[in-house]
Fold each of these.
Amino acid sequence: MVKIFILTKRSIFLIVLVSNTINPLLASPLYTDSVSQSYQERAISYLDIQNSLTSKGLQKEIAEAKVKKLFKEDTSLKLAYLYKHPDLALSKNIVIDTFAKQALFDKYCDLNSYDSLVGFVQSIHPNLDKKQLSAIKQIAKLS
């Protein structure tokens, strides 16, 4: 009787051990449409782009006006996805510098436009694959 109890304990232990090692291998990453609070804290903000422009020698008021011209509407959610999307793998500093360069030359960046987003990402990574293009399409469709 004691042996059956020990076998049952061992088998339960083995089942738990095997399930815990296989489960992470089978799990797929979960991407939600909402961005968590900690996710937003690490995302790119207008202030980051403005600070990049002021570090290049622009006055604070001029840098603020240029950033407002760059994005005519609130696109902070799309900025967060653009920087944090795993298929794009963009560096935060490079994205900020690229947006600052566009703002410096008074270019408008429409983050709702797929073509505009593709042009922006291609200025960072010239050769885009299908995964990256589909990620850009997802970001452009966000509202």
Amino acid sequence: MKTTIHKATERGHANHGWLNAHHSFSFGQWYDPKKVHFGALRVLNDDIIAPGMGFGTHPHDNMEIVTIPMEGELKHRDSTGREEVIHEGEVQIMSAGSGIQHSEFNPNKDQHTNLLQIWVIPEKRNIEPRYDQKIFAQEGRQNQWQTVVSPSDENALWINQQATFAISELEAGKAVDYHLTKPEHGIYLFVMEGEISMGKDLTLGKRDAVGIEASEQVQITATQNSKVLLIEIPMLELH
């Protein structure tokens, strides 16, 4: 098993006033040649958006974009005519495909919004743009993995890539295993809240992450009440 540790304190950081963002991978003005991608996982941004503020209309193409609100709400509007509000407990996916324009705003006037926005390089290029979102019952992730994004699980949101997103909320002392759908894939674990351990030598705290390669399964143990995002991803090489 090969591991690559990404500590929360070593992420890129940009504070624009209305947006306080941390970048796990190179993004915008922040570039780290060792943190450009993990396989097909290209972006993982931890964004805090001020009340009433947001991203104006802007274009995307040929990228799978997953948004996971952790606090507050996000209002989405796109060029297909779709207009939705995404709440904590929901997950959104947008396949930018051949091209789409969208805007995202915090609709609340007295509360910030904290979300993860994750970009995955697609399996097929120039597909018709599509959008979906879904609420997932919290009990479905208690001390187990709840699949929220998958190319094949009908209970999850569909993604144009052989990638799986799963979330677990673990009580302190509880452990959970994950078996890869394809042995050649990698796993990126991101600790949303709490603290977890892997074996005797690796402990990850809030917003820490680890990339894992050459292992067909992983086991994590919560050393305190924790919430963890797991992304199983094809190990593409970017050129």
Amino acid sequence: MKFDEAYSGKVFIMSRPNYEEAQAVIYGMPMDYTVSFRPGSRFGPARIREVSIGLEEYSPYVKRHLEEVNYYDAGDILLPFGNPGKSLDLIEAYIEQLLADGKMPIGLGGEHLVTWPVLKAMHRKYSDMALIHIDAHADLREEYEGEVLSHATPVRKACELLGPENVYSFGIRSGMREEFEFGRTSGMTMECFEVAEPLKKHLPKLSGRPVYVTIDIDVLDPAFAPGTGTAEAGGISSKELLQAITMISESDLNIIGADLVEVAPIYDHSDQTAIAASKFIREILLGWVKR
């Protein structure tokens, strides 16, 4: 199945024209209806695609060229503006179709709540899956100002769905006291402030398992990624996130899908956030899509 009806007019660099032959599918989730501070991440997927034209097709990190990976950019899912419930249902149905067609989903956000319906669809196919969550924020609230559908809740929902022992969070440096208490006592793994070194320690525990990876761009310090809705000082560098992505590439994890969320281009007129995000997507394509 093709999703040409969702095509936004721009594609990620070297995207192939044939959906049926693709190993992986890039798709956008342009939703930012539940954000608690600054909106604008619904424009992230399009801008990540647009700036990807500046990338080299070769990665010296994994020594592969984009011509070696067959991927299709399906554009953005057409989501009803202002209706998070229906939008999440549409995303979930979209992922179900991708999985039925044997494609690896690589999502571009959008606010972080968009990861939740993806996880629901993935879990139906991979009941023993684990989640790697790389973010500045814990996202472990049960609700935000009375709203259970919030960009502050997806990882708590993931713990309830997958079991907290199957959720691994890295880079966390912001959240309520109760969220950090949950991280310490629930059985999940929560590593604060750093990503690469603690990830290296935990990767052997996930050996051979199906793993979904979600990356919030705000794990980076605002010096490296100012274009995000909820920037948080004290983050990691672009170099460290690239190291983490490469570690996963070199591991024996079975990466079943990934997303990168919360790029909000309006707050970064230099495009350094979108440019970094597009490079991370290149490395995900080259390192995580099965050879």
Amino acid sequence: MHIQRWIARREPHWKTLELLLDRAERLGLKSLSATEIHDLASLYRSVSADLARARTHQVGAVIVQDLQKLTSRGYAQIYQGTRRQEWHKVWEFYQSGFAQVLRETLVYTMLATTIFCLSALVAWWFAWLDPNFLELIVPERLIQLVRDDGELWMGRIMGDSPGNSSDIMTNNIGVCLRSIAGGLLAGIGTVYILVFNGLLIGAIAALVAQNNLAFPFWGFVFPHGALELPAIFIAGGAGLMIAKALLFPDNYRRLDAFKIYGPKVAQITFGMIPMLLIAGGIEGFISPNPAIPDSLKYIIGTVIFLGLVAYILPHSAALQAQTLKQLVKRRFNSAEDASS
């Protein structure tokens, strides 16, 4: 290989790559056009090959060092820049994409919420009237603790907060994933989990109310329940969506219906995981903490729930405003056409 001729032939490519890298490092990859990004990747590969050839033929320490710097900078922009873009997409999803999916699937979430709340109401009613019904739903040790000792069981969670918090997170995630997967059983599994948990919370609500412990009990539930319960309802709605695709695919083939609903279910699953992790941390460290007054726990839970609502509603309000604006514009145009 004639070294001087090889350097003269390859040097313009090195300079082009250096110029592209200078701009990408200064202004970001978004400053490059699609063609320039393609050229950047292609030049990076060719310069990497040049570096290997320069080392093999002992072109010179200066050339090798310069090529080494170019390839290192190219690697950082291409691969680390891609990672930054991926994290940016994740951030965008949690910033607005998840809220969009929740709005699109709100009917299913509300249906799951209704199933849960009706089950809780039925359990509360029967447990209030019949102690035998209460014993069918609530574990006996909890009944004895509340009824005989006049105590709640939540304070015991504080003994090992990190371990308990981890267990709570794992359990909550498991409940939600089973709710979603239950849709594959024609929705029977999803409905069972919603009804079972609704009956349990309703019966316990009656038990603590009968023994004048409702205020501290709901003080415990409010902080983490503000995220945990909506996550269960959202997961239940996703399971019902799967059941709909299976049982009532409308005008679609079942496979096509799954292709339509499947991505939304996947986005819901991905989106609700942080909700459950945060709820588990709150349930392990804040909800059972006797140093925090119950009244403050109510406030914390209320603020968290309003934050969740605010996460969704502003986007929804903006969407409604945009729709209204388009409707007014269409009517104005129609009136203008009629007058002309």
